Each structure stands twice: as C-alpha cells, then as structure tokens.
Protein 1
Amino acid sequence: MRLSTSTCIYDRVLWQQKVHFSARETIERCVRTGYSILDMDYSIYSGEGLPFDRDDWQLWIADLHELSTKLGVEYPQSHAHFYNPVGLSAEQTAYNEEQVRRTIVASGMMQARNVVMHPLTVLDGTWYSHRKSLAHNREYFLRHGELAHSLGLTIAIENMIENKTIRRYCSSTEELLELVDTLNDPMFGICWDFGHANLSNVNQCEALKAIAPRLTALHVNDNRGEKDDHLAPYFGNMTTWENIMRTLGEIDYQGDFTFEIHKFTNGLPEAMHDEAVRFTHTLGEYLLSLVPGTKLTAF
C-alpha cells in the first residue's frame, strides 16, 4: 500500500469559495511536501466558469501531463465530475454529462488507471427510489464505462451518505455490492470513503471485509459525525483507525491509501498550507506503519 493524496488538498485559502490554487501549482506543491502519487480531483475544476468549461480544456490537461511527467508524479486514480440529477432540465443534464465525459477523457490523458465516480440517486415522486436508482445507475455506468474502457481505465464506484437529513443510493454496503454485481464487469470496482461510512454509521471493518474482492480505491478522511468534514484521520470522531489499518492488511488491499482531506487545509492562510500538508504526509506514513508487516523507518 502506497501513500497518496487527492489534489483537492490544495483548494481554498481561509474558506474562500473560489478555487485558489491552480492545478499546476497544486501538483508542484504536493511534490514539494512529499507526495508523488496523486489522485487528480477533476471535480473541483469542472462546472461553470472552471477549466473543464473551456474549449481549450484538452490543452490545459496536456500541460498538466507534461508537468507531471517532468516531476515524476504518478496518478493511479482520479475523481470524475459528479452531479445531482434531481430537478435538472434536459439541458442541465446534458451539460453535466459532458463534464463527466471530459473528466473521464482527462483521466486517460493523464494516464490514470482508475477513475472514481459517484452513483446517482433517483427519486420516486418526492422520495428515494431504490428500484429507479439501480436502473438509472446501471445505464449510467455502462455508458460511461464504455468510454473509460476504451481509454484503458477502470471505474471505482464510491459509497455515499445516509443520515438524518439525507438519503443517497449506495450509502449501504449492500446497495454498493448490488450495483457492482449488476454491472457484472471486472472493470467496475469500489472506492471506499471512510468519512461517508462514518456519517452512515457503517461498521467499517466489516464493510471492508465484505467488499474486499471489489475494493480498488480509498478516500481516507475523518469527520465529527454530523457533516462531511473531510478532516485528516484522528481530527474527527472516528476511533477505529488502528482496527481499519489492521483490516486493510488482513484483506490484502493492493490499492493506494489516498487522503481526501481538503477541509483540513481549506481554512488555513496560504503561508501555512505547505506545513500542514507535510504533516499529513507524516501522519499517512504513521497510519501505514500500523498495517501488519509494513516496515517504515520513521516509525
């Protein structure tokens, strides 16, 4: 298991709403702070007024690929654009679908191997519909899976959130496995988001054992049990990190250990970002040292 981080770790400064760090600067800073294996989070660059909204987005990606090659950065996974389909017009849906398509193409251009995608939730009138959500996602992933396959990519479907105020399809391990089994193609796997699972009160270790044969990616983050805080491990209310690391070793997880912890850094002044990100690298190495059989000299 290798330590990795999502590029969203460099996102905003002092909680500003606009993306503050460019993708190019983000890659350079991640390398400077110890990371050479990255999850390119295209979702923070997609949408109206952002790089994937421009006609020259492929030139932008080509420039990032050239920089990454020069710096020796590897992208085992990326994160596609995602959206909520409820209440969208046909025009809005088409726009979002094009953003998804562009981010999948970009993943291929950056030579990623695995692209993380969110399942979509469909309502039956005014409430969640399991039947319609399953049917919609089957069509959605088969369609985008055809493009991903042509680019040499696999797709990791991410677990979602269910709590007192929100219900999303694939919040449960059972639904996630059902969807992957229905797609019935080895190119579809699972990305496990620990923060989402914490909000859904899932037994994380048992879930990891259940999805082990299909587990291809991780989003490692913590929260305080109320919102999707995307904090670094130990900075939320999760108390099972030692058990989680042991379980990842037991199931022989072969993917990367990828932080998705942008809200741990978003509130900081720009001058403090690099020091905070260096700390997360040290924290990640410590967590990996908890996996039985792993030998890291620092711990």
Note: The beta strands are 3-6, 37-41, 74-79, 114-117, 123-124, 127-128, 154-158, 188-193, 215-219, 257-259.
Protein 2
Amino acid sequence: MGAYILRRLLLIIPTLIGIMIINFALVQFVPGGPIEQIIAQIEGEGDVFQGIAGGGGEVAAAGEDGVGRRGLPPDFIEQLEKEFGFDKPPLERFLNMLWNYMTLDFGESYFRSISVIDLVIEKMPVSISLGLWSTLIAYIISIPLGIRKAVKDGSSFDTWTSGAIIVAYAIPGFLFAILLLVLFAGGSYWQIFPLRGLTSDNFDDLSLIGKIGDYFWHIALPVIASTISAFATLTLLTKNSFLDEIKKHYVITARAKGLTEQRVLYGHIFRNAMLIVIAGFPAVFIGVFFSGSLIIETIFSLDGLGRLGFEAAVARDYPVIFGTLFIFGLIGLVVNILSDLMYVFVDPRIDFEKREG
C-alpha cells in the first residue's frame, strides 16, 4: 500500500503542471488583461469589457495594440507591463510562476495589496463551513434514508420519498436559497434567521456558547440550500448500492444460516454497499466546496472562496486566479488519495497494488 500511495503522490506533480499549462495557455487568449483593467479605470470607463462591448469602430480607432486610443504615455504602459511581469515572454513567466509555487510563494494580488495565501486563508472559513457541514448533513441523512428505501423497496414509503427526492434534486440551489430567504430571513413571512454574513456584528463580545450559537444561526440557511442537491444524489446512490448487494448470493446464504435481518444488513451488506458511497465522498465534498459556493455565497452575502474566484476572474487578477487554482487542484488530488485510503479502511481486503499489477 505504501508503494501505491507514493506513486499517487508523485502523480500529483505532473497533474498539477498539466492543469496549470492548460489554464495559463487559455488565459493568453482572453481579452481584457489586468493592464487593460487599470487603463480603463484611469480613463474613467469603469470596466474594460464595456469598451470591448461598445462595438468594433472604437476598437478599430485604437490601432493594432488597442491601447493607443487611450492617449496614455508609452512609458506608463511599459512601466505597468514591467510591474506585472508582462515584459517577459509567456514561457518565462509560466516557468517562474511554477518555480515560485514549488517554494509556496503564490505572489500578491494585483489589486488588493495582500498575498494570495493570506487572501485564501481569510476567505477559507466561509467555504469550509459550507462544504464541511453540507457534506456531513448530506451523509447523516442520506445513508440511513437510502438504507431504509432499499429495505422497503417498492413500498409506499419508497415511492413518496423518491418523489420528494426527485423534486429536491430538480430545484436549483439558488432558487431554493431565495425561497429560504423569503420564508425565514425577513422576506414576506418570518424573520427567524439573519439575512447575511457568517457572524453577527457583536460576535467578539459573545461568550463561547453564544459564539457557537451565533455561528450556527448564521450558517443554517446557506448549509440547507447547498445540501439539497447532494442529499438527493447520495440517497439514491446509497439505495441502489444496497439493492445490488441484497441480491447477491452471500446474502441469501447468510439468511439461510438463520441470521437476523439486522445482522445480515449491517454485518454483511453494509461494508460492501458502503464502498461506492465512500468513493463518492470526494465528489460530494469538492462539489459543494467549489461548485455551489459562488451562488450560495452571493445570495447570503458570504465572503468566501467562491466570490473570491469570481471577482478575480472578472478583474483578471492572475496571481489570485492561478494561486487558488493550484491550491484547489492540490486539495482535490489529495482528497482523492484519502478516498482510496478510506476504501482500505472500510474493507481491508482491497489491495490497490495488486489491482495495478
């Protein structure tokens, strides 16, 4: 197992490099870089994309470089290019970036005057709160419900819960989040939960119990909104996994020996059926942690990694874009390795080294 883990760890390096190469190459063709953003702000245009959307006539008047129309001194443009490192060829910039990343130097944001790593650490608590609690709640509810549905397959309980799950899965997360705000956050009905933020303004003055209560009070609605889709998928996955195991011969043999249904279910079926559920853990966690965080954070006014990535992409803040991409890519790859280790923990009979051989 040690050799397998070592190989997986070594594969992280070329995988990350491949991810960075693809994204770095794509960025070279995207219009409206950080220099153009700064020039647009100096010229009072607000956003470089307004000029791009304004039509071809204005761009044609700009000349081949698209900057001359602004009437800014060439020395100023050259100074900006040197400050941001765009005076160097793309390959040299990419190699320098990789070397800095290998030494855990992710640079500084172009527009925030703060290092990328400090920026990520600052925004991390919000996204961790959403991802961790949503995943835990999804598993706590979905696994028992999925087992119950498998045992009661075809019954009225299975039918109406399947209908509820399908409806929950069909509802977009952002729409459900808005519904929660309208109903429970001072919309048109009850004001039970706060409208925005992760903590109250007087959070530092609260006692330890008060801080814990205030935190869960604020995070309740965002977690519920981000859990709904993962909950639906995981429940059906658990049910189908248990149904597949229930039909196998070793279950029939265990029942023939006179074992109780509880012993058969949790002593024999559970370990095998849970393998595929555990395999889906990284996808559930990473999906909630990254994919749904932008919309949920925006609706509930939470300042997390989702909004950070979106704002960095709009502003063309390349250090933040590539730094977070590298960090999140590394996290995703490590989580996948942890998933394999959980396989072995649940069922020691699994040997990845023999399978690779």
Note: The domain at 116-356 is CATH 1.10.3720.10 (MetI-like fold).
